[in-house]
From TrEMBL:
Pfam families: DUF2929. Keywords: Membrane, Transmembrane, Transmembrane helix. InterPro entries: DUF2929. The chain crosses the membrane at residues 7-29, 35-53. This is DUF2929 family protein.
Length: 59
């Protein structure tokens, strides 16, 4: 369930980023860029949360 919510939030935040940047630059909204950024954000977040940033057990 965490991965699903991560993907949803990644998509929403990516859409916001792409919309604002393309609007400021005078281009049209590009859904392909939104999906690419969302997939990248999701993968990085899942990799970091499941592997790299795991809590170490107390010794």
């Amino acid at each position: 369930m965490r991965v699903i919510w991560t993907a949803i939030w990644s998509f929403l935040l990516s859409a916001m980023i792409v919309y604002v940047i393309s609007s400021m630059a005078g281009y049209s909204f590009d859904l392909t860029g939104t999906v690419a950024i969302a997939v990248t954000f999701t993968l990085v977040t899942v990799i970091l949360s499941e592997g790299v940033l795991k809590d170490k057990p107390n010794e």
